[in-house]
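1st attempt posting a full record on here, be nice pls
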Amino acid sequence: MVSALTRAGWHVRCAQRSVGSTTPNANIISGLELGSSTNWQPALTGVQAVVHLAARAHRSKTTQKRESDLYFSINVEGTIQLARSAIAAGVRDFIFLSSIAVNGSTTDGRKPFCEQDSIAPDTVYGKSKAIAEQRLSDLASNSKMSITAIRAPMIYGAGAVGNFGRLRSAVRAGVPLPFGFIRNRRAFLGIDNLTSFVHHRLGTSDLSNFEVFLLADNEHVSTPEFVRLLARACARPPRLLPIPVSLLRVPMNYLGLGDALIGSLEMDARKANATGWHCPLTLAEGLSRSINP
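the predicted structure (as tokens):
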């Protein structure tokens, strides 16, 4: 995100917990925890817009339950402290990277998720994002700062961790994957499409106080189709074993990956497209760039 906004002409100040690799063109302020009492004033002075990407994520459902207090402390209280500080600093726009987990884990047996659906998070992570959204909405109604929440599915790109990082490593190593018989449909979001929408949103005038957008690549594909596209980007042959889904469910559910790999997750992103924005990259192009940035 820092690199994309810098290329688009923004002067970016990057606030982060520890010193790490980032674009050399960013003004970096480190040592800032995402917490309920963090002093954000040095980072927010003179800032026009905040793009809030940090969160606790990529843990199993079991770990999430064990660390629920930590999830809510970071993902909710930390977010609200940053937003309140941004309002006090006179920030105009606040973009919050939320998650489709706010809607739920699967669209099996139902229509694609959309912004008008009742929320139904079934993980601690999803609940923390849902509560953060609601409290941001409350803040926006009493301030002049415009807040945008982006609900994203699995985001892929160079250096991505989580399920995408594990799949990429397995494909590159030639590990046979037991997904050959899965017949689902899932939404994904390339990092370039995400950064493009954020840039588009930051350039939009007359924004409302609070808006939620579901954002995804145009294509919805099955898990094996995604693996094939990823293998092509890695210049590796796809190695998919035809294991019956009934045999996969028990181990996948035990690992907390049943919904993520076997279930469907479809999203209706027409609201984002109605703003005049469209995905600049296809899924295949995004995967290729994630391997060869």
